[in-house]
Amino acid sequence: MPNFLIALFLIQGLTGKIQGVVLDKETKEPISYADVIILNTEMGAASDNQGNFYILNVPPGRYDIEVSFIGYQTAVIRDVKVEIDRTARLKVELKKTIIELPPLVVTGEMPVVKKDMVGTTYIVRKSEILTIPIDYSMDIIAFQPSVARADTAIHVRGGRATEVLYMIDNVPILDPQTGDPAINVSKGAVNQVIFLPGGFDVEYGRAMSGIINLITEHPSAQINGRLFGKTERIMPFYYDFGYENYQSSFHIPLTRKLKTYFSLDLMHTDDWDPRLYILPHKRRDDYTVYGKLLYTPTGKLNFGFSGAKSRSQFDRYNSKWKYNIDNYRSDMRKGDLEALNINFLPNSRNLFNLTVSRLYTRRLFGVREAGGQFEDFTFRDYANLEWPHGGIDNPFGINIPYIPFVGDYDQYQDKSSQVLRANFNTDLQIHQYHELRTGFEYNLMEIKNFTYFISDTMHQLIDEYNHHPKEYAIFVQDNIDYKGLFAKIGVRYDYFSSDIEGIKPKISISPRLGFSFMVTEKFLFRANVGQYTQPPLYDQMYSYYNLLPFPAYITQIPLIGNPALGPEKTIAIEIGLQGEVKKDLLITVNTFYKDISDLLGTKLVQTLPRDYVTYFNVEYANVKGLEAILEFQNSLFSGKVSYTLSWARGTSSYAEEVYYRYYYDNPDTSFVPPTQEYYLDFDQRHRIFIQGSSRLPLGGKLDIFAFFGNGFPYTPPGPEGKYEERNIVRLPFQRQIDCAISRAFKIHQTTINFYLEVINLLDERYEIAPHYPIIALEDINMKDFEHPPPYIDIMENSAYYNPAGDRNHDGLITPYEEYLAMHEFARDSDDWVNAYTAPRRARIGINIVLK
């Protein structure tokens, strides 16, 4: 493999290992000091006294390995496959010879089952990424086992959406305030995705459910590029939600040792979260720029720099605001990432790596002004916003206080976070059976926030702060490879400080153990157990905390941050069996159990002058399940079928649930919320994913993606559902089939690929959320509109008269007309459109590869 590819993965630390033993073919005795060379690279090693050799920091790919020693025939093992964080094992037998013979060439047969896989790992490769019918790179794992997708949130093995760590080339990209990815990269810039739903190593912190690591494209030694476009615009009727996506990327080598890669992605849609049909005020415009520079002065010292910049801005729709939608909320999110990596490999057994990065994100929301398609949103001055309220100025012609027919969205927010991160780690092959991995990580943050609430009084509410919390971690792990048994034993120490005077820093210690071994030549058994922790989000620590004691003129019970929060904890156990049933047929079965404690929740604090609700580590969850995956491949067809059975129970589905369910609209502070366990909002009992790819006549290709699963649980309306039993009813069964048909043409060195993508092929429209009128029809009584005598109709000259309410146009609005209008409003307020999935959608695209 060329040196440029070696350099890329060295600087990113996304590598594997080659190890093996060199033996005399006749005597089976070890051969010491044999030369082991990876052809077309500067990497190699010499065997030790026992004939063992180790080559660390080998980039993923396929290699030819040459093994030689004086007096023996040279051997070349072709097509040795190396994967990220895996070990390729070789047993090389050399034949004695007294004359020089040409090298003995053999093809390396790498086992399908990897014995060093102690935890579940799913890899989504480039060929698969390009066909998956998703719009955002962070959603690539949506078709993997272990994943339940509730609306737009991804939940891994029954965990909350905030328990997943997102990374780009091993650099965390989480916004520490919200837990969302702070930046995005183009799907076309992603080379592969590594998804770890359990049993991950001690080098990973701030995650309890899973790791999603996007591995970006590597620069090429030759100039080449890619142009891509996909659109719904030419589709008729409801096939068109206004989606457009355009991408370009180029590999530009500057010198033999200095190479670059750049990508640009533009996306626009008229409805970024489609339902039954296009709704107003749901436009979205995104762009992403990504670049990478690699410098390899020597084979042992390497430098790399990468940077990304993204912006996402979108309007939101809310059925309560549909008659005043232009004054509802819009969001703009910006992110910047810069990362510098220095990698030093003094010999084949020792590796040292230093990564320094800066992650910046800014999030704004409020009421925006009108603007162009890709111009940054301009938000209205928050000081001039009008309190939203109801009234008679509505299509129903009567006074309705429930809907903001007049006024603006009542909040403006501008928050930002900057994370300066340094990470130093080493891989040391200290013994024949032991590889020691150690590391240190330090994060210094700046957290800023400005939130402005308008009100119907003269008292406005402003929450403004600037804090500098810090986090650091130390970890050590011994990777043991002993005579057929592979084990990982490690421990991680985490520390975080909230930067609030009088609040003590918090620490956590997380031991982890995993092991695997082959029970037969084709089947692997693995198991792991460990503790995983993560600090709370800084929104939940700082929001409104500096306003305590909270002013008494605020009538609504406030939700206040708590800087004394401790880390959340998960103890997870996983057992798995993986084996090759026959050639090209692989089966995997995983079972898992998770005990989750100290989850964030909310509790009422009764104090003067104003009671308030704040966060505490008080919630608990328990998850168990089973996953079965069948993978198959032949010359015409390949595919994967997975089934997941799981139970996710707990006392709270998200940190703010108790507050919004029991206190947000309830002034009664004497009420004590229930604390019993229930099936969480994202509990999905059965899930089936089917993925297949098949060759078609005339050089075509068909890719199919199918999903089937139970509906999620929900709480029905009324006091029984709200205050006693939660999530006692389930939504209907879910199902969807997507497909893509493509055909490639090659013209000289240019490849042009045309394709048609169809989402929801069978046009299934199932319910994904409960829906009800704001006022139940049975609760609307005629008596509520009858005034005590002497009754006076609303006359034409009254300030409360609206012609829309005067149904017979006689100049009067009678109680009966008010009653009919309220019925009409109630039926109109049922948000049934947003409660169902989108119809069939079709997109056409073209992909041009230039060489």
Automatic annotation (TrEMBL):
Pfam families: CarbopepD_reg_2 (PF13715), TonB_dep_Rec_b-barrel (PF00593). One of its GO terms (cellular component) is cell outer membrane. The keyword Transmembrane helix does not apply. The keyword Signal applies. Gene3D superfamilies: Carboxypeptidase-like, regulatory domain, TonB-dependent receptor, beta-barrel domain, TonB-dependent receptor, plug domain. It is a multi-pass membrane protein. Signal peptide: none annotated. It is found in: Cell outer membrane. GO terms for biological process: siderophore transmembrane transport. Keywords: Cell outer membrane, Membrane, Receptor, Signal, TonB box, Transmembrane, Transmembrane beta strand, Transport. GO terms for molecular function: siderophore uptake transmembrane transporter activity. SUPFAM superfamilies: Carboxypeptidase regulatory domain-like, Porins. Belongs to the TonB-dependent receptor family. This is TonB-dependent receptor-like beta-barrel domain-containing protein.
